[in-house]
């Protein structure tokens, strides 16, 4: 058995036995770690609420044969406390955690850039300076870029031509008329510009985008992400339900 220390964000938890939990943490140096937190479900647990999803922690662990064991934990930033009172931001945060989990399949494989993206995304959600769905779409696009799946947005994904006409998930992004496959979406130019702004972190441009372009952008980004993951993001159902309620008055048409 050996001890190691790291900082990380709790992605998810599930029960183990009568009083324990298995905690999945995306750490800064080690990557994704699954560890047992003994007695954490007891009322008098010394860990308390420190090992709940969204919490940014400093954690000490023992290396185990199959699962490590949490021995010490201190809270660095309790992002969940601010998110649980705001449903749109909370659902966006849950989708971030699930995506980070899905994009770091191999345990204990360093994933520093994904960790930093997650911390930055949660911090931005909490400070409330941008619409939650914009923050989530920016997180999706940047996470895909870190994983090597960034969509082509400035020139044709197949031939490199500048005159793009459509967005094709299977082709890897925008495509020209000659390369456009059947069934490709034809989004507004402003929607593609919004995707570029979110990927680059150009928040003034993103924040000024019209609602119809934000809705269209979210649909394309979600479809592109889930195609590359080969599975749906379950928490997106709750995000989209929130979006549909908020945007019920917005016409969902393409320019």
Automatic annotation (TrEMBL):
Biological role: Involved in DNA repair and RecF pathway recombination.
Family: Belongs to the RecO family.
Membrane-crossing residue ranges in chain numbering: none
Xref: Gene3D superfamilies: Nucleic acid-binding proteins, Recombination protein O, C-terminal domain
A GO BP annotation: double-strand break repair
Family annotation (HAMAP family): RecO
Name of the protein: DNA repair protein RecO
Alphabetical UniProt keywords: DNA damage, DNA recombination, DNA repair
GO cellular component: bacterial nucleoid
Pfam families per record: RecO_C (PF02565), RecO_N (PF11967)
Species: Acrocarpospora corrugata
Every DNA replication/recombination mediator RecO N-terminal domain range: 1-79
């Amino acid at each position: 058995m050996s001890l190691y220390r790291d900082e990380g964000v709790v992605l998810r938890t599930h029960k183990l036995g009568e009083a324990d939990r298995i905690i999945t943490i995306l750490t800064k140096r080690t990557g994704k770690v699954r560890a047992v937190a003994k007695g954490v479900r007891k009322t008098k647990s010394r860990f308390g609420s420190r090992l709940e999803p969204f919490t940014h922690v400093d954690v000490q662990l023992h290396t185990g044969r199959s699962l490590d064991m949490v021995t010490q934990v201190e809270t660095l930033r309790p992002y969940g406390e601010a998110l649980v009172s705001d449903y749109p931001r909370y659902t966006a945060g849950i989708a971030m955690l699930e995506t980070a989990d899905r994009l770091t399949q191999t345990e204990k494989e360093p994933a520093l850039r994904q960790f930093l993206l997650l911390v930055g995304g949660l911090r931005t959600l909490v400070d409330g300076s941008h619409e939650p769905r914009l923050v989530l779409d920016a997180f999706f696009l940047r996470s895909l870029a870190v994983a090597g799946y960034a969509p082509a947005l400035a020139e044709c994904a197949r031939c490199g031509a500048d005159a793009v006409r459509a967005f094709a998930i299977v082709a890897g992004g925008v495509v020209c008329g000659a390369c456009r496959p059947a069934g490709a979406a034809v989004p507004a130019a402003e929607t593609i510009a919004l995707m570029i702004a979110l990927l680059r972190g150009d928040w003034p441009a993103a924040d000024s985008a019209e609602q119809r372009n934000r809705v269209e952008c979210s649909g394309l980004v979600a479809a592109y992400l889930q195609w590359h993951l080969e599975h749906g993001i379950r928490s997106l159902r709750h995000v989209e339900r929130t979006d549909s309620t908020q945007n019920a008055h917005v016409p969902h048409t393409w320019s």
